[in-house]
Amino acid sequence: MSPTAVAALFALLLLVVVIGFLVIGTYNAVVALRNRIAKAWANIDVALKQRHDELPNLVEAVRDVMAFEQDVLTEVAERRAAYSDRDPIPRQAATSEATSEAVRHLFAVVENYPEVKSAANVAALQAEIARLEEVIADRRELYNDQVFRHNTRIAQVPANAVAGLFGWTPQPFFATDGDERERPAVELREA
Q1: Distance in angstroms (rounded) separating the CA atoms of residues 83 and 51
Q2: How deeply is 148 buried, as exposed, middle or buried, from its count of CB atoms within 10 A (0-12, 13-18, 19+)?
Q3: Which of 83, 88, 99, 166 is spaced 20 to 30 A from 176 at the CA atom?
């Protein structure tokens, strides 16, 4: 074999090894990002379930005193019931945001009832749900950061070629649509 053929074979082998390392490194990096997204979503899901478990307790605690505010209580119950962890992430995000808005509406109405607001169990439930809302917001931010990293990575060269080979597509952000960003109108009724 001539020295030129050996050099060409060596160059070809080196090129194959470099491309192999590039593909393997890119694949592993994207898999790690996909796993971080799954973990971040699982953490959101846990907080959403905790909030959904607390909402019936809050509704029950204020139901008797707020008898004529049934529409507010019904709204919270309906929004809570609409959530399904089997829905696609964008639908879960929208349902979660709608539930958060219904809870904020309920908290605003509770402020007008000193006897409800001062009840220890209601205050404790409000504090716990408010804490869970903060946890959800923090976890949502982490999830969206991981999605951003993933989507950016699979759009960049050479990862976009590897993403095409494995059928990887951008992941959805935990976002709301325009209707859910608007603050709800709160109507307060006199007792």
Answers
A1: 11
A2: middle
A3: 166
d(CA 30, CA 166): 11
Residue 31 tokens, joined: 């898999």
CB neighbour burial string for 35-52, b if at least 16 within 10 angstroms, e if fewer: ebbeebbebbbebbebbb
pTM above 0.85, yes or no: no
How does pLDDT run across 100-149, given as a tens digit for each residue? 888 888 888 888 777 776 677 778 888 888 899 999 999 999 999 999 99
Which 8-state DSSP code applies to residue 156? Answer: S
- In order of 43, 123, 159, 175, 178, the CA distances from 140 in angstroms are 9, 25, 26, 9, 18
As a whole number of Å, the end-to-end CA separation of the chain is 99
Asked if 146 and 37 touch (Cβ cutoff 8 Å), the reply is: yes
> How many H helices and E strands in the chain?
7, 0
Closest of 56, 180, 177, 176 to residue 106, by C-alpha: 56
